[in-house]
Design brief:
By secondary structure, this protein is mainly α. The chain contains 6 helices and no strands. The protein has 2 domains: 9-56, no CATH class; 60-114.
Length: 114
């Protein structure tokens, strides 16, 4: 089923989605807002290592982290920007390059969800 011309689609923010899933609350958001992105990554990695008793051997974190961050960026712009031009501008990349990246992102997300 396709949208009617001029029909607007309301995007749900990632924060709203996590709130409705009960994964975060206002207190958590206040704590996160006081941390830098680097501190958040370090905390998440430290929590992950606790599950495997400090051993992350075999995981090429250094090489995969750029992809993890880019995936987070695409998640952010796809939920918070209205147009692809706006998304490209927010990311600071030319529109023609963005369209190729976005196409691959959408394709990979469909593959991962199936």
């Amino acid at each position: 089923m396709s949208r009617e011309k001029g029909e607007k689609v309301k995007k749900k923010s990632f924060i709203s989605e996590l709130r409705s899933d009960g994964k975060i609350n206002e207190n958590f958001l206040n704590v996160v807002s006081n941390l830098t992105l680097e501190e958040l990554v370090a905390v998440k990695l430290e929590l992950s290592t606790k599950l495997v008793k400090g051993k992350l051997y075999g995981l090429p974190l250094w090489y995969n982290l750029p992809y993890v961050v880019r995936d987070g960026l695409m998640e952010f712009v796809s939920r918070n920007c209205k147009t692809k031009v706006d998304m490209a501008s927010t990311l600071g990349i030319p529109y023609d390059i963005f369209t190729v990246i976005y196409r691959n992102y959408i394709k990979n997300n469909k593959d991962n969800k199936e």
